[in-house]
Amino acid sequence: MRAHLPLVLLLTAALGGCGSRVDSAVDAGAAARGGAPAYGDTLIQALPANISGLIPNITGDKYSHDAVALIYNGLVTHDKDTNLIPDLAESWDLAANCLDLTFKLRRNVRWHDGRPFTAADVVFTYQLMVHPKTPSPYKDDFGEVESVEAVDAHTVRVRYKQAFAKAIMTWSQTILPKHLLEKYMLEGKLREAPQNFTAPVGTGPYKFREIRSGEKFVVVANPDYYAGPPYISRIVYRIIPSQATIFLELKAKGVDQSNLTALQYKRQTDYPAFRKAYNKFRYAANVYTYLGLNHKDPRFADKRVRQAFAYAINKRDLIDGVRLGLAREATGPFKPGTWVYNPNVRTYPYDPARAKALLAEAGWTTTNAEGLLVKNGQPFSFELLISQGSDEGRKIAEVIQAQLREVGVGVELRVLEWAAFLKEHIKKRRFAAAAMAWGIGLDSDQFGIWHSSQTGPDEFNFISYKNAEVDALLERGRNTCRQSERKRAYDRMQEILAEDQPLIFLFFRDVLPAVATRVRGIVPGPIGVEYNMNEWYVPKQLQIYTSG
Amino acid sequence: MLWYALRRLVLTLPLLIGITFISFGVIHLAPGEPVDLQAGDLNAQSSAQARQLLREMYGLDQPLAVQYGNWLGRLARLDFGRSFAPDARPVLQKIGERLPVTLMLNIVELLIIVALAVPIGMVSATRQYSAFDKITTVFVFVGFATPDFWLALLLMILFGTELGWLPISGLRSLNWEYMSFWRQQWDFVGHLILPILVATFGGLAGFSRYMRQSMLEVIRQDYIQSARAKGLSERVVIGKHALRNAMLPLVTILGLSLPGLIGGSVIVESIFAIPGMGQLMVQAVFERDYPVIMGNLVIVAVLTLVANLLADIAYGLVDPRIRMSGRGGRR
Fold first, then answer.
1. Exposed (0-12), middle (13-18) or buried (19+): which is B100, by Cβ within 10 Å?
2. DSSP one-letter code for A482
3. What gap in Å lies between CA A427 and CA A376, rounded to an integer?
């Protein structure tokens, strides 16, 4: 089972190749089956960045999480439709008051060093997460917990201070071995623990074998895995920083799996030899791209201006031009096809005439010699920030620039290094507009992004959006454990956000993995393809790495 | 002479401290802190409290001067500290595992460049404006103008995917552990051919030009005329008398490129997925991993200063004028 990133809101550098899991439309799913399951062979994956640490509870980057995903488990995990299912816990029970959560643990689980896994490890993981010296980005997940206790060796009881919508999902957090890490936790030296670089010990389907910094990370099948040993004997993560090189290696069969860019997916892999060697998949990422507007700028504080922008930007054109059609239009902050998504909201079909009318209503009536709208003697022109290194971000910004120019709004583009972009402009609120993306994780709580209390210097409502009704709905959706109640709150919130257009929702891009056709057992789902890697196999006659 | 060397050595120390002081300041001036980039800003869940914890862990909550003092104090005990990355490994260990590859690549590259540039420059100079000279001139300008990454990708496509003769990236094949000793060596060499080819191509251009220029100057000297006049064969004139003198400027340039040996080329390393110093340094800069950046800078600075010192001493040995005026302070 894949230990899941419990991250909820991830501010991404807009639009790189970082994949996320979820949703529909699958290209070549059927071809990925057939042939008798067999043990053996090696799967080679490409990681575009170095691994920063092997204890995922204290690392924040996606690739470090990806690399160790098969080494650890949480108490719960997600199935292909993103539902929560048992993992190290056999079952769970949430009391009617939403406050008492009891986990029954599996009895046949052992750590990779042979020690049995017990309730003490779960209690320890909780203590580690909330320990004042643990540098974890996921601490707040456990903030609502009042106590965690081991009832017996295989029962854990968690009590919450108040109803918490994410209560169960929180426990998809990686469970760590108490017997190895306790002393490092107490000293506040978890990062220096050998388990963080040379000897990670988990309960997962694969065991650590080797790490060579900047070169590769190798795991091998765990014969004692509680759900039975995985089929593929060895998985190698090769660290290849250049996306172009990864693609060439894929073509030369030097790696078995990699995410493709839209261009590669559409134009550069559509020939018989590639189709024969790889299955291509497609599903919507949990990331939406948007045009962020700073509400502290009086021009953007006016709702009509933001709505005008929504009409003026042709999202279909944008998706076709930038993503070659490989994305889905966003109508709000939730992904189409998920339970929380509300399709009945105000939409903004491309309509420049309507955009001009709205701008005129907002007082932008006259035009100057350059064709820019003018109000109180000031032409309507602003700076749009994009972060460096994102080719896609730059293209999006250029399309927006051209389309807004059509309705008389001037846009100047400014490219900045990511750290400077964040620190000097976004955090200090020194920006008019920015092309960015929000990673929205698997839970629907978006308190941090929209709540008016979250506009402080280090907080994430950096566009300074304020709406009292949205505030109330966010609180309601967060402090209940009943999905129907959350759904009602979030449906209404989506209506308001669609009407307000606090930022211009653009699209959810697709993740486009290619996996070698010899690998079978892949069942793509809304969550992606990698969630069941321990069930993948290569039929005996197709295995190529047999000596190792 | 000893006095001279000692004096130079003593002068080197404040210079080194000055370099580190300026570097330290400049690095901290760059916007963003490691705590912002790790977990911090990237994740809406991470609270201000988590960020504060990291700042305290790294000592970033103290004034810059105190941070510098602490760092310098540790450095005096040869403690380079631990990386700010979540793996928190000692800086020296991180540099140590990256250094050998880069060093080897650069030395091989430099040797090939010199071995090729000297004859090319010599022939171009002695047969100035001949067909060979013109062809090499064109070649040199192409070499100057070709972007590394573009050439690398072309070669990778040709030899890696189309012909399938050479591996595309990395240092070793995945089944390396299972190969015989000689196959292992060949596998390793095979992986290095393309990166060295790419790195050499650009460098060759410059060096062969220097060599040509230097040779052209030398063969116009009177002593070459005299050598010819006394009836020496052209081979001896060029190969012995001219070459030795023409090599002198080249040796200076070579000396200057020594500290660069540990620098590593970011582009070549990234494209060929070679875990060397270039990648380490760039990653450290992006992550604002101050201890790694500083560790790297100190090593480069020390090497540069040592190279300088050795050069000065060597000059002193060769040239008595420097030794005498050295008291006046030549730098």
1. exposed
2. -
3. 30
In this predicted model, what pLDDT tens digit does every residue of A153-165 receive, in sequence order? 999 999 999 989 8
What is this structure's pTM?
A: 0.84
Residues near A392 by Cβ (< 8 Å), separated by ≥ 6? A14, A15, A16, A322, A323
Measured distance CA(B288)–CA(A192) in Å, rounded: 19
Residue with tokens 């010819």: B228
Residue B231 to residue B237: CA distance in whole angstroms: 9
What is the bridge-based pairing of β-strands A42-47 and A234-239? parallel
How far off is chain A from B56, nearest CA to CA, in Å?
Answer: 10
Amino acid at B79: D
Closest CA to A8 of A165, A191, A144: A165
Report the Cα–Cα distance between both ends of chain A, in Å, rounded. Answer: 24
- Whether A9 shows a pLDDT value over 80: the answer reads no
Backbone φ, ψ for residue B171 (5° rounding):
-115, -30
Distance CA A301, CA A303 (A): 6
Interface touch A52/B86, C-beta < 8 Å: yes
Of B39, B57, B149, the CB nearest to A60: B39
pLDDT digits (tens, 9 = 90+) for B230-254: 888 888 888 877 887 787 777 777 7
Distance CA(A43)–CA(A453), nearest Å, equals: 47
User: To 10 degrees, the CA torsion angle through B213, B216, B221, B227?
Assistant: 130
Distance CA A528, CA A19 (A): 9
Place of tokens 């060769």: B318
**Planar angle of CA A13, B36, B69, nearest 5 degrees:** 140
Question: CB under 8 Å to A467, separation ≥6 — which residues?
Answer: A450, A452, A496, A500, A502
The strand pairing partners of A133, in sequence order, are none
**Residues in contact with B147: Cβ distance below 8 Å, sequence separation at least 6, in sequence order:** none
**Of the partner residues A10, A213, A244, the one whose CB lies closest to the CB of residue B42:** A10
Closest-CA residue of chain A to B275: A214
Chain A residues with CB-CB distance to B176 below 8 A: none
Give the pairing of strands A283-293 and A504-511.
antiparallel
Facing A139 at nearest CB: one of B50, B85, B170: B50
Of all residues in chain A, the one with the smallest CA distance to B97 is: A213
Are the Cβ atoms of A252 and B160 closer than 8 angstroms? yes
Amino acid found at A5:
L
Q: Classify residue B189 by burial, with Cβ atoms within 10 Å: 0-12, 13-18, 19+.
A: exposed
Residues in chain A closer than 8 A to B286 (CB atoms): 418-419
ipTM, two decimals, is: 0.81
CB distance A209 to A201 below 8 Å: no
Interface residue of A18, A136, A213, A430 to substitute, partner B, most B CBs within 10 Å: A213
Of B43, B86, B157, the CB nearest to A58: B86
pLDDT value for B3: 79
